[in-house]
Amino acid sequence: MLRFHLPFARCVAALSFALGVVSPTWAWNACGHRVIATLAWEWMSPPARAEAALLLSHHPDNARWLSRAGASDDEVAATAFTEASTWADDIRDDPRYLEDTEATPDSDFDWARHRQWHYVDDAESARAGELDLQLERLSARLSNTANPAPVRSHALVWLIHLVGDAHQPLHVGRHADQGGNKFSIEEPDHPRYSGGNLHRWWDDLPCAPWLRGERLQPHIERLEPTARQTPQASPEIWLAESRDLVRSAVYPESALITPDFRARAQVIADRRLAAAGERLGRWLNTLLVGVSRETASK
Hints:
By secondary structure, the protein is mainly alpha-helical.
């Protein structure tokens, strides 16, 4: 494991991480990303699963993910895959990782946080965010077997996360309010959200962020009937769908979140989660199956 000298600012970040200080939201909450990854794993072929597990073994955080796994080989691989889905958010406050402006170690693995990869705003002038560009670049890196395993592992873990981000409408949101982060809301029926912002509200629609393992199963079962109704399309279409939802359905008429609006939003969120899971699994079959050791041996 690479070790870094931590300057004062990064020590503060480490302390904040340890104390659980809340930082700005970036995506579906942790439960949402785990749900998407679990659905994706169910859609993946055995050869794609084997290749994904092999690549994850080259990731510096794989041991942490495996610590949550059960005994069977398939459960170990599935757990690592699911836990990897939140890594791109987790590293925001992890002192081992660096901002893009900091010098990174000479390594095949990319230690930058890449905060701008999570979104692409609907801006009138200059580009804001790189989500669309990175979906293209990372998929090319993952499918290229000439790349070192750490490079492909890094690309895989980012893709597991970013496909979920692409299906959260506010990650393709309005630049003027930073994807809903500056849109304040009130919800009398759910006081914890009063005084919060719309982006975080949408992030938390899937389920409680601390849920994992068997506790995800009711949410998986709720979404499974929806998944097969989704065309695979392409990342450009996934982003366009999110953009259309921002324009037509994501914003309430006022700062007040009504029960009717929550009910409609929950239906949209469920459809986006199910679509993301199916699309991620099927896309990884395409990106990985040609390089799977099982496939190669036939």
